[in-house]
Design a protein that fits this description.
single chain; 431 residues; mainly alpha; A middle domain of Talin 1; two-stranded antiparallel sheet; 16 helices; 72% helix; globular
Length: 431
């Protein structure tokens, strides 16, 4: 079930100086709301507008992260994180919707593929780095261990990204693809909603802000706090997304950055900034580092399903298309970008199937992401069967790396046992 019956459970012990925590929350809510109103009601210089948006996003992302930490004691941690991830990618959805409405096919796939690869190739390794730096003095940790029930998110990422192979095979994106991807997302959210909430004994490791929420004596007050934080964070991020991206686009043009590069890398980096803030905040503690990885995974699942599903629907509804059932057709450059995104996701899934994300995984992911970020185009030589385009070659390198990762860790894979464990939790959820 989606909501735990512990809504009326006794509150936990409050943090030290609760008045200061309450004042911190009020400051964030007022500051984030003021920033959103300011950038949408006044003509500010691009640099100042970007700074105001940046501050508002920080306020919103941290408020949502604290709310999610508290919410995992009422719903499953995975469901809370997936809900937060969905709110956090709303700016990305707005950017993609604007591109699809304008009918700019090249930029549609630039934004979608760039955002996927940023989350996996840059986001996951940096979570490991943040976790490692936070554990300094204890030696660099060899890995981030996931929970057994996290196999739900990992398998959802595998299923949703695998549908990209269908899209590649037919080289088009149609309304029925949106139906399939939307169904996958609904099943994913349903499964996470059936997992159990955290036990109150695990609240001891909470930081002061989420502890303050759970320490409120009345259950209704705790729920109000959670709703306020989630609504505030989501509203602010949606409100500042367009001004933030628009002002940075002006700066990018002035610096000579091409529109394609801006849409594929700069815009996704900015629109994905909320989940990066939240994930890096969680990655500072050993207990919450897996939650940080799952935040990125859930964001990627949302992109592979809802974000891609939205493209043909918005394009079909736009005045420049040929009707609601219009199909978005691809050329070879689009296929290359989608293939590379799928291959990087495949390697990411292969890393997580053992329910551990290691230092070696982080280094290889980042190295291959950096190569395809810095270098695009043709190699000075042809490779048998692969050709000479660097993205095709790197895609097959990632596929090979995924196969090797699974083969090396075959005896240590916990997929079957973990999936059975998660399914038992889902089946035995209280009605």
């Amino acid at each position: 079930m989606f909501i735990s019956d512990r809504m009326s459970a006794p509150a936990i012990a409050p943090p030290a100086r609760p008045g200061r925590i309450a004042a911190l929350y009020v400051t964030f809510i007022v500051g984030g709301t003021a920033g959103a109103i300011l950038v949408n009601s006044m003509e500010l210089p691009p640099a100042l507008a970007a700074l105001v948006c940046f501050s508002a996003v920080i306020f919103a992302a941290l408020a949502i992260s604290w709310g999610a930490e508290a919410a995992q004691f009422y719903v499953s941690q995975g469901f809370a994180v997936a809900g937060v991830a969905l709110l956090q990618v709303m700016p990305e959805f707005m950017v993609e919707a604007v591109i699809a409405w304008s009918g700019k096919v090249d930029l549609m796939f630039a934004n979608a593929t760039g955002s996927n690869r940023l989350l996996i190739g840059l986001g996951w390794p940096f979570i490991y780095v943040v976790a490692a730096l936070s554990a300094r003095g204890k030696g660099w940790p060899k890995e981030i261990r996931l929970r057994r029930e996290n196999i739900t998110e990992v398998l959802a990422l595998l299923a949703s990204s695998s549908y990209y192979l269908v899209i590649i095979a037919k080289q088009s994106l149609a309304w029925y693809d949106a139906l399939v991807l939307g169904t996958l997302f609904i099943l994913y959210f349903w499964a996470l909603g059936r997992l159990p909430a955290e036990s109150e004994s695990e609240a001891d490791e909470l930081l002061a802000p989420p502890r303050y929420i759970l320490s409120r004596p009345r259950a209704s007050t705790r729920i109000i706090w959670l709703v306020v934080l989630i609504v505030f964070g989501g509203a602010v991020m949606v409100a500042v997304a367009e001004p933030f991206v628009h002002t940075l686009q002006i700066v990018a043009v002035e610096l000579g950055i091409s529109v394609f590069v801006f849409v594929q890398w700069v815009a996704p980096f900015l629109s994905e900034f909320p989940e990066k803030v939240t994930a890096f905040y969680w990655a500072r503690t050993v207990k919450l580092a897996p939650m940080a990885v799952m935040n990125m995974v859930s964001s990627t699942v949302s992109q592979f399903t809802l974000l891609v599903a939205m493209i043909p629907l918005v394009y079909g509804a736009s005045p420049i298309s040929h009707g609601l059932l219009a199909t978005v057709h691809m050329d070879p450059s689009h296929v290359r970008e989608i293939f590379l995104s799928w291959a990087m996701t495949l390697y990411g899934v292969a890393c997580l199937l053992k329910l551990r994300f290691t230092r070696g995984n982080a280094l290889l992911l980042f190295a291959l992401w950096l190569v395809q970020f810095l270098y695009r185009g043709d190699l000075p030589f042809n490779l048998p069967l692969l050709g000479n385009h660097v993205h095709i070659v790197l895609g097959w390198v990632l596929v090979l790396a995924a196969v090797i990762e699974v083969a090396v860790n075959w005896k240590h894979l916990e997929v079957r046992a973990a999936a059975a464990h998660a399914w038992r939790l889902i089946r035995h959820a209280e009605a």
